[in-house]
Design goal:
Elements: H1 3-26, H2 34-50, E1 74-76, E2 85-87, H3 90-106, E3 115-122, E4 125-132, E5 135-141, E6 147-149, H4 152-155, E7 173-181, H5 184-196, H6 205-213, H7 218-223, E8 227-237, H8 244-253, E9 263-266, H9 268-281, E10 289-296, H10 299-305, E11 307-308, E12 311-312, E13 315-319, E14 324-336, E15 342-353, E16 356-362, H11 366-372, E17 379-383, E18 391-395, E19 400-402, E20 408-410, H12 411-417, H13 451-462, H14 474-482, H15 497-500, E21 501-504, E22 507-510, E23 517-520, E24 526-530, H16 532-544, H17 549-555, H18 563-572, H19 576-581, H20 584-587, H21 595-606, H22 608-620, E25 640-644, H23 652-661, E26 665-667, E27 676-679, H24 685-693, E28 696-698, H25 700-707
Parallel strand pairs: 2-13, 25-26, 25-27, 27-28
Antiparallel strand pairs: 1-6, 3-9, 3-10, 4-5, 4-7, 7-8, 10-13, 11-12, 14-15, 14-17, 15-16, 17-18, 19-20, 21-22, 23-24
Helix pairs in contact: 1-2, 17-18
Bound molecules: 2-(butylsulfanyl)adenosine.
Length: 722
């Protein structure tokens, strides 16, 4: 390929990749799979390495984040970024509408009903995105409204921000306004990781988004799955828009993510209804909203209304019930989880926050409580946002509060007089002395027979993502345990109808909730006719024996082994016996499994009690072998390949397809289980690993020979796939 051809191919790839990013991130409707996307991406990357000047600012290869910055430079916004006045309730909303109509009437623009747009008020970080001739040029934070910080490098890593506008005739300049945020699920994951790493947790998703966007190392920003909702066109040249509704339409067409729930309505009554509907939906959203923003639709009317100080008169934020409140922390109690970890939680004076009454909240761990200096008896700030589990932000040590007897006292003095809290020395469930391993934040109960741990591990075993045994919930587990019917998960498979309900001396004896009906048999004797609930539960237990091995492995509740990890383990070790034989070192070679997980698995399976449980499960007929999915049979059946570097003719996905069609398997990392490493140009560390392990290294021609596809490689390098 000569340079001119490379340039045109690179342009084509940029457009294709950016289109697929839009389909994936903005429309949530991908047309190709990850492997195909990666192949396009790699092709572009290669071209850009060869011809660095082809790496234009709109190249998707910028999305992975560039070199760290020294600091952020300042940018003056093309048009000030205003803030919003608040309406705290419906009365204030109605008053705002009346004022609008009065002011417009005075200018001869009066109307019975004004047309408004109602949007969610995203609780994230305001940003401005400037596009010059259709290309993303500058991304900035709001700053003081006039001048913000240049965070272009970080914003380029946000997949839903277009690097080039999708419209045919892009305006010379357009500034788009929006809000970046971290989706709640990602926020929770991020905090789990931070706590596990001994870092302070982010207080809320907003802070985590702000922290991420102000990262000096764009690669770190790229690792945080930030997203954006765009809600306005700021400064523009060459755009002719009449109202906000058409501005939003233009944004959508240009490739921006605009919230699909935004509505345009006539009259303030419908505004109030739309705002209430947003408040009701709040808990279901994957992002935080703290209100609804109402905007006058027509730009001519917006101009006529103008602004006071920094707030436009034509828009208002209708605030929802606050998502933080102050309340009294009565005590700190401790839960024992299935792996023995003691987790403190707050017992609070019930308080209405974020739309629900909260009386318990998480406190993460002892260090976090110390760092925030939270003491039982304090007044604390409780936060609940979206579907996030309520949490205690910290103590309030200013102002006054009532003591138990109705006297006022200073919160500061009160706080100072309260004793600090520390983790109990013994397990609240079984009394065993607790341990805290060096370097770990978690305190645990070391007793494997601790009833709390047993109950929690059985709850996990029967739960939806695990063995999914319908009819056995938390309460039933506790009940069966209390009755001495189940000690561990294997005991579930020894349960019989009699354990739930039976006839004794002519009377029905049943566990609470499991009663049955009797009838007279042929000989006139009383018998149990029906025991519906017990039979259902027993059938569900029986059915669970058919769950795939990966689910069983996950259900065992091994530390660090979630559903994805279990699947990865099973792909390499498709039976319990194979797993039992593997050492920690072998396990650590499985893609996606690190030394910590590997150690946890071998430790769990090395434990005598756990082995016993596993054997009981096997005896009961629970599946401990993965039925391999119907795989093509061929010359490569049973062989595992790893691909590295660029092959002369085949793309990565073509090579993978060839191998799989011939019955082989492609894995992402080299281990002793690898049969062949297929190496192309610029191979990575996988090649070194292969030679250190003595794994055979082959090239494309040899691969084609092995797959039996050699005859199909045509002269011009084109290949017809089987
Ligand atoms: S419009 C002139 N629309 O709220 C109008 N703002 O208090 C100014 N915000 O700094 C902004 N969602 O960060 C607008 N749908 C939305 C919004 C929104 C969130 C934030 C934005 C702004 C703040 C104003």
């Amino acid at each position: 390929m000569n340079e001119a051809e490379a340039a045109s191919r690179a342009a084509e790839l940029r457009e294709t990749i950016n289109r697929h990013a839009h389909l994936y991130y903005v429309l949530d409707a991908p047309e190709i799979d990850d492997a195909a996307y990666d192949a396009l991406y790699r092709e572009l990357q290669t071209l850009e390495e060869q011809y660095p000047h082809l790496r234009t600012p709109d190249s998707p290869t910028h999305r992975v984040g560039g070199a760290p910055l020294e600091g952020f430079t300042q940018v003056r916004h093309l048009e000030p970024m205003l803030s919003l006045a608040n309406a705290r309730n419906e009365e204030e909303l109605l008053a705002w509408d009346q004022r609008n109509r009065r002011l417009l009437e005075a200018r001869g623009l009066g109307d019975e009903r004004l047309r408004y747009v109602v949007e969610p008020k995203i609780d994230g970080l305001a940003i401005s995105l400037t596009y010059r001739d259709g290309v993303f040029a500058v991304g900035a934070t709001r700053g003081n409204g006039e001048v913000g910080e240049d965070v272009t490098a970080n914003l380029r890593t946000v997949g839903s921000i277009p690097l080039r506008l999708l419209t045919g005739d892009a305006p010379p300049v357009v500034e788009v306004r929006g809000e970046v945020y971290l989706p709640l699920a990602a926020f929770r994951r991020l905090n789990e990781q931070r706590i596990a790493a001994g870092l302070p947790a982010f207080v809320n998703p907003r802070n985590s988004a702000a922290g991420s966007i102000r990262q000096l190392d764009p690669r770190l920003a790229a690792a945080r799955p930030l997203d954006v909702w765009c809600y306005a066109v700021g400064y523009s040249e060459g755009l002719d828009l009449r109202d906000h509704t058409s501005a939003l339409e233009w944004l959508r067409a240009a490739g921006f993510k605009v919230n699909p729930g935004i509505v345009t309505v006539n009259g303030i009554e419908d505004v109030a209804a739309a705002a209430r509907s947003w408040e009701e939906r709040r808990a279901e959203l994957d992002y935080d909203i703290d209100g609804a923003v109402v905007k006058v639709d027509a730009f001519a009317l917006q101009r006529a209304l103008g602004s006071v100080a920094h707030d436009p008169r034509w828009a208002i934020a209708f605030k929802f019930a606050p998502s933080t409140m102050t309340t009294r922390l009565h005590s700190i109690e401790v839960n024992v989880g299935r792996t023995g970890v003691l987790t403190p939680f707050a017992v609070l004076e019930p308080v209405f926050v974020g739309g629900v009454t909260v009386e318990r909240a998480t406190l993460h761990n002892e260090d976090d409580i110390r760092r925030k200096d939270i003491r039982p008896g304090d007044d604390v700030i409780v936060q609940r946002a979206g579907d996030v589990i309520p949490q205690v932000v910290g103590p309030v040590t200013t102002g006054e509060a009532e003591d138990g007897e109705g006297r006022r006292e200073s919160r500061e003095a009160r706080h100072a007089a309260l004793p600090e809290w520390s983790m109990p020395r013994s397990c609240p469930a079984c009394g065993s002395e607790t341990v805290r391993e060096t370097g770990e934040v978690a305190v645990r109960c070391p007793n494997r027979s601790c009833p709390a741990q047993l109950i929690e591990s059985i709850k996990h075993f029967v739960s939806k993502g695990a063995m999914d045994i319908e009819g056995i919930g938390d309460e039933t587990v506790a009940l069966l345990h209390e009755q001495g019917l189940i000690e561990n998960v294997a005991d579930l498979y020894g349960l019989e109808r009699d354990h739930f309900v039976r006839l004794e001396a002519g009377r029905v004896v049943a566990l609470p909730g499991f009663g049955g009906k009797t009838r007279r048999g042929d000989g006139g004797e009383l018998e149990l006719a029906e025991a519906k609930r017990a039979d259902k539960v027993l059938a569900a237990i029986e059915q669970s024996k058919q769950r795939p091995f990966a689910r069983v492995l996950f259900a065992l509740g091994i530390r660090h082994v979630g559903g994805v990890t279990a699947q990865a383990l099973v792909e390499r070790y498709p039976s319990m016996d194979a797993l039992l034989e593997a050492g920690a070192e072998d396990l650590a070679e499985v893609p996606g499994i690190g030394p910590v997980v590997a150690e946890a698995v071998t430790q769990f399976l090395g434990d005598e009690h756990n082995r016993e449980t596993v054997e009981k499960l096997r005896a009961a007929g629970v599946r401990l072998v993965e039925e391999s999915p119907a795989r093509a049979e061929g010359p490569l059946t049973g062989s595992t390949f790893v691909l590295t570097g660029r092959l002369p003719n085949l793309t990565r996905s073509q090579a993978q397809e060839l191998i799989e069609a011939a019955g082989g398997k492609v894995s992402s990392s080299v281990s002793r289980a690898t049969d062949y490493v297929v190496a192309g140009e610029d191979p990575g560390s996988k090649l070194d690993k292969a030679s250190s392990l003595g794994v055979a290294v082959i090239d494309e021609v040899e691969l084609l020979e092995l797959t039996g596809g050699e005859g199909e490689a045509q002269q011009d390098g084109q290949l017809s796939l089987p």
